[in-house]
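Q: My labmate handed me this sequence with no annotations at all. I'd like to see what the chain might look like in three dimensions before we decide whether it's worth expressing. Could you predict it?
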Amino acid sequence: MKLNEGLAKLLNGKYEPTSLVYLEFKGKDIAIKTNKKGNAILAFVGQKNEIGNIKGERYARTLRFDKDGKIIKDHWELKGKAT
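A: Here is what I predict for the chain of 83 residues:
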């Protein structure tokens, strides 16, 4: 499953730094892990099971900044199944 534009826009927002955030998007459960700046760096997209784990797809984000703090690389990559 490739990230659609709506989901990518949701993941590009700012969230609580260094945390795990749970969201819903178009019937899918999403768990987002954030870095120290509040940027999403891991995303688990699928269905939440009875113990709260998300079974579906796992995505990792490559996020690079230049010396002035401007984003020079921002890319989401499918890493496989999330169980």
